[in-house]
Design brief:
six-stranded parallel β-sheet, alpha/beta, about 280 residues, about 40% helix, 11 helices, TIM Barrel
Length: about 280
């Protein structure tokens, strides 16, 4: 398995400590990344920044290619440029737009009475807070990921981000039932220069998860290898373990007929671009 994951970068791992149980902790992830010869792993937490945790992991596990970022949910003040700046100064590489706190997420989950964090104003234009957030991301050279925004929000926000100087944009799991981006919209975003993240599994609706390989393969072939970033989005105790799941994903891409060069692009080169490596 070591050769299979050598040089691979995973920009989306949920590890502990967290507010919910996780199947792997930061230091175990760091040790596994070194053992597999991976070139990077990004720790993601919906409620707190992870750049400082990544630093601790690198100190504890010499040579560990561990990175962090910040998700702009209410725990850090929502669309908060100060949170972006603090994370960047601590070495963070990715800023995610709201996920569990996003207005779209709460609407899709049917949360009664919840409004959540919207990206657009009443006229359907990027809010002033979103514009300021993009400027902070651009000023510190971070990558932007779209979190759990709606298709309408994403299609307005992405060109605004590029216009305000953000250079690297990732569409977070567009195939998710929470996001639900149509293939034609994904193609539009790829044409703008955005990368599209394809994650290992999707919720099965019964508290478990199912691998999403077939759907990912179809979407990759429709939108293009050049704009694809393969990521795990693993760390849930009810899901397969991180390294096993990531390896299974890469093997599945091989079995689906993608060439070594195409897999290198999706699993190594494009994620490296996201992190500015």
């Amino acid at each position: 398995m070591t050769d299979l994951l050598h040089g691979v970068i995973d920009i989306h791992l949920h590890s502990s400590p967290d507010v919910r149980p996780r199947s792997i902790d930061d230091l175990a992830a760091a040790r596994a990344a070194v053992a597999q010869g991976m070139a990077g792993v990004v720790l993601k937490n919906h409620h707190a920044p992870t750049a400082d945790r990544a630093t601790v992991a690198r100190l504890a596990v010499p040579g560990a290619p561990v990175f962090g970022g910040v998700v702009l949910n209410e725990g850090v003040g929502g669309l908060n440029p100060d949170a972006v700046e603090a994370c960047a100064q601590a070495g963070g590489r990715i800023t995610w737009l709201p996920t569990f706190g996003a207005a779209n997420h709460l609407h899709r989950q049917g949360a009664p009475g919840a409004t959540g964090i919207a990206l657009l104003d009443r006229r359907g234009r990027p809010s002033s807070a979103l514009q300021a957030t993009f400027e902070a991301i651009a000023a510190h050279g971070m990558a932007l990921a779209t979190g759990h925004a709606s298709p309408t929000e994403i299609l307005v926000a992405v060109p605004e981000a590029f216009a305000r100087g953000v250079r690297r944009v990732v569409i977070t799991h567009p195939e998710s039932h929470i996001v639900g981006l149509a293939i034609d919209d994904q193609k539009r975003l790829a044409a703008m220069g955005a990368l599209l993240e394809r994650v290992y599994a999707q919720p099965d609706g019964h508290g478990g998860w199912q691998p999403h390989l077939a759907g990912n393969v179809a979407a990759i072939r429709a939108v293009g290898v050049e704009s694809t970033v393969v990521a795990s989005d693993l760390g849930q105790p009810e899901n397969v373990g991180w390294i096993d799941g990531l390896a299974s994903y890469v093997r599945g891409l091989h079995a689906a007929g993608f060439t070594d060069a195409e897999i290198d692009r999706m699993c190594r080169a494009n994620p490296a671009t996201v992190l500015g490596l």
